[in-house]
Amino acid sequence: MSDLPEITEVRAAHVIDEAALATYMQSHVDGFSGDLDVRQFEGGQSNPTYQLTTPDKKYVLRKQPPGELLPSAHQVNREYRVMEALSDSNVPVPKMYALCEDTEILGTKFYIMEMVEGRVFTEALLPSLNKDERWAIYMDLARVLAALHSVDAQAVGLETFGRPGNYYARQVSRWTKQYLASKTIEIPEMDKLIAWLPEHCPETDAGTIVHGDYRLGNVIIHPTEPKIVAVLDWELSTLGHPLADLGYLCMDYHTDAYNGEGLDQEDISAFGIPTESEFIKAYCDAAELEGIENWKYYLIYNLFRSAGIIQGVYKRGLDGNASSEKALEYKDYCQMRAQIAWRLVESL
Is 153 in contact with 209 (CB distance < 8 Å)? Predict the structure, then answer.
């Protein structure tokens, strides 16, 4: 399997007006010139993503999907804003070129950014790498996440990027609504979690920039070195609590990952991958934290949240407007993650 991003012909449901796009880029993207070749990246279950190639340069276009959109979903304008704000930080992000909120151009909102060359690994066990490379990449995942959480939101102009206070209560409410809007079958464990989570929210103030979907498959690794050169897919970013991101990343230690096996192996160290406690320590060291209380809550919350997200992906697949043909493969994932989350509740 290649570690390069998979690029296909533009799928029928996501064909765009290439002439209108070229005209827009001529006026809004500095240095743009020449004929435009448009292809589509595989994956990216929420927002369709395209490779734009000219004789001199490659760009990436990311847009909202066609069809009816769930409230507060597919916020490409938020992605653009946060990456532009982080451009001078220690968090590696692509250069932003243009944000278009005029839906007359391509039918939905979109933005254009530079294409960062590198490798994308979707399998948590990194089977194509050696032990030292696996360890280095996971350590860099911890380092970059801590770097993100150390960014002063006000200093980079993101002080209004999220509402203050009650972060987990608001997030649980949001993902409950999203799940119910895309529900297809009865899942008793989801109903139990919807009742349990609000009653056990940690008291925290929202103020840290959080990614919301920080995982191995959403970073670009240097073409030859085991280090992160770009963090992508910021659609769910907001001001929130940093342990929400860490708990999300550590879900793989308790369940299958989005693509293939997770890190819930009997001896994960045999792969050269840090254990959950080693990874948490690496993050805490980089973030200058002494430790974490109530760790299981952050796992339970994230399993619930990801179950809701995956249910939305599957529902868009049923409706025929998903960003990838793989959407229907997620049929059972919502239920599986809800069941794992409820077992963690019962273990408390």
Answer: yes
